[in-house]
């Protein structure tokens, strides 16, 4: 496999919840992708990427990984000297897995043992997730390892709990009136500070209670309904999830999106939710009538990712 492409990912459900053991559902998004390449480093982009890889290689050198997941760091460092860089159009700070794709690409190229994603067992998936979490922590302070796992496997993954992940088949996308879409908030978000806000909120008993009793219930019900293609319970729980986020995740909702978020709830024309940690980047939208939602969200850049 020469220069394999690693796609972005979209966490449809489970943002913040997976930290607290809710379910999550995440899928590859091939509109954005990245691959490791060599260059003469004459462009600023290539040079910056090469410099970042050098710093990252020092971090990886000090990681104590189990023998079966060892990386060939000396080869990685030699390639960096030869002009290795990560050629990617995945926007950073948009919640679509820019660092996840990089981690997956490095693991694929430099892992001493090679794996065939389609043959990876459920146990191996969990082990890979742990390794990827350690590798990606360099970028976010703490990583669940899910983003690089999706990028590496290039398959939809159901996060069943902290201890269990599995490959999953999602209903095929087909041309209907309904859609799941991305809205560009027009600003980037940083994962670290947003996660910090979440942990601060978790210190209060009231927030912990509503997170467990409401957010996780709505979130898991959305995943169940989506996988079963049951649109009525999906949209009922989506509305509850969107209302909950509007009340409890205010700091994570980009200001440019506040009014549009509320308008969706007031009209029931569409519902919005965070895509990743929030603070900027993309927001996810769900609607039964995309034409209507599109008109109401005029002025925002939108991308449809799934039709039904």
Automatic annotation (TrEMBL):
InterPro entries the record matches:
GHMP_kinase_C_dom, GHMP_kinase_C_sf, GHMP_kinase_N_dom, HddA/FKP, Mev_gal_kin, Ribosomal_Su5_D2-typ_SF, Ribsml_uS5_D2-typ_fold_subgr
Molecular function as annotated in GO: ATP binding; mevalonate kinase activity
Q: In which pathway does it act?
A: Isoprenoid biosynthesis; isopentenyl diphosphate biosynthesis via mevalonate pathway; isopentenyl diphosphate from (R)-mevalonate: step 1/3
GO cellular component terms, semicolon-separated: cytosol
Cite the GHMP kinase N-terminal domain residue spans from the record: 84-153
Q: Which Gene3D superfamilies match?
A: 3.30.230.10, GHMP kinase, C-terminal domain
Tell me which residues make up the GHMP kinase C-terminal domain: 254-301
Question: What UniProt keywords apply to this chain's record, in alphabetical order?
Answer: ATP-binding, Cytoplasm, Kinase, Lipid biosynthesis, Lipid metabolism, Magnesium, Nucleotide-binding, Transferase
Give the Pfam families listed for this entry.
GHMP_kinases_C, GHMP_kinases_N
| Listed GO biological process terms | isopentenyl diphosphate biosynthetic process, mevalonate pathway
Please name the PANTHER family in this protein's record: MEVALONATE KINASE
Query: What is this protein called in UniProt?
Result: Mevalonate kinase
